[in-house]
Description:
Number of helices: 21
Order of helices and strands: HHHHHHHHHHHHHHHEEHHHHHH
Low-confidence stretches: none
Amino acid sequence: MATTAMITGTWILLAIYMLAVIYLVVKGAGKTKNISDYALGSVLFSPVAVGLSLAASMTSAATFVINPGFIANFGLSGVISYAIFLPLASMISLVVLTKSFRKHGQTVKALTLAQWIGKRYDSKSYAFFMGLLALLLLTFIVLIVVALTKVIAQSLNLNEFNVMLAIVIFVFGYMMYGGANSMVYTNTIQAAVMLLVAIILLTSGYEHFSNGVKGFLDKLAAIDPVLIEPINPQSPLFRNFYEIIFAQIVVGIAIVVQPHIITKSLLLKKESDVNKFLVTAVIAEVLFFAVVIAGLYARISFPDLTLNGTPLANDNIIPAYVVETFSNGTFAVIVGLFVVLGLIAAGMSTLEGLIQSVSTTITSDLIQPLFGHKITSDLSLIRINKVAIVAMALVTVYLASDQLINPKLSVGIFAQNGVYAYFSAAFVPVIFGIFFKQVKVSTVFAASITAITVHFLVYYGLPALHQAQTLDLGFFTIFIEGKVRNPAIAASTAIVASSIVGLIWHFINREKLTKA
C-alpha cells in the first residue's frame, strides 16, 4: 500500500505532468494544419530531440514495467533474452534500415508505413491490406494502458478500472490535436526523465552487491537456483537457447519495421542529422533495455512473489517494488515519485506514437481509399482522424478491461501476439522494398500472407492439433505446449518462413523476366 506522502505527491506530480503536456499539445497543435503535419510534423526538430523521441517510442511501459516482471519470475535467462540479444539485434537493424528507408520514404512522400509499402509496390490494395493489419497494433496500446494503470493505481491506492478510464480519456483526448509536432516535444521530455529513472532503477538494488556479483547471485540462488541459470525450463518464455537467442534475434531485427519506429527518421529535414539521431537513440536504448535487471532486485524484495500474503501478478511486480522501495523517508518518497513519473513517461511516450501512427493509418490507408471521393478538404481528414482516435479509445477500454481481470500470465503475452504478427507481415515488404530494385507486388503479398498464416498457425493451430494428440514436432513440441505460449516463437517462425517464400517467389519472377 502506498503511504499518504506517496499518494499526495503522486497527485501533485500528475497535475503538473498533465498541465505540461496540455501546454505542449496546444503549442504543437497550432502548427498542425493538415494530416501530413499530424503524421510527420511541420517543425524543424534537432536530431538529438528526434533520437530521444525514437528511444522513448521504441521503449515503453513493456520495457520498464512488464518485462522486468518476467525477469522477477524467471531470472537471468530473461535478462539474456530481453537485455542482450533482443536489443542488440534491434539496434543493429535500426542503424542498417533507417538510412535506406529514409531515402525511400522521402522519395515517395509517405505518411504511414502502409502508404510507403503501397507506393513502393504501386498497389493501393496492398496498402489497404497492410493498413488493416496495422490494427493489430491496438494490442500494444492495450499493454501500455494496462501498465500505466498498474503504476498509477498502486501509487494512489485507487480502483484499476477507474484509473484506466481516466488514462484513456486524457491521452487519447490530447492526441486528437497535437500529432507529431507536439509528440516530439513530449517524447523528448519523457525520454530525458526515463534516462534518469533508468539509472535510479538500475542502482536501486546496489545494497545487494555488498559482497560483489557473486553475493548478488547467491541471494537469487537461495530463493530458487534456476534464477541464476542461463536457461529456465520452468518458464514459458526462456526454456532453451533457441527461444532465448535465435527467436529474439529474429524478432529484434524485425521489430524495427513498426510504423512508430521506422518512420521516425522522416521527421528529420536534413540528411546530415541522421548519424547524430542514430547515436542518440542507440545510447538511450542501451540504458532503457537494461532496466529489466530491476526485476531481479524485485525478486529479492519479494522472494515468494507475494505482498502482505497476496500473490503478485507479473504486471504488478515492478509497481509494487517501486512503492515498497521508495516509501520510507522524505528523500526516498521524492525519488519514488520521480520513478513513478519515469514509468508514466515510459508508457506515454510509446502510447502517443502508437495512437498517432495507427490513427493516421486508419484515416489515410483505410478510410480515404474507401471514401476519398466524399472527403473534400484537409480539414475533413483531420476531423476523420479525431473520430478514428475516439473509436480506438473505445476498443482500448474494452480490451484493457479484460486484461486487467483475466491476463494469461501478463498483458505482455497478449500484446506480443498482436504486434509480432503485424511486423512479421511487414518485414519482407520493407526489406525487399529497401534492398531490391525490381520486386513484384505478388512476391511481397505472398510473403505477408505466409507470415500471418504461419504466425497464427504456430500460436493457435499447432497447439490445438497437439492437444488432440495428432501432432508431434520433436524439439519444437515444447513451444506449443501449456496454457501460456511464447509469441516470439510464432513470430520468428513466421518471419523465417515468409522470407523464404519471398526469396523463392522473387527469384522465380526474376527468372521469368530474364527469359522474357
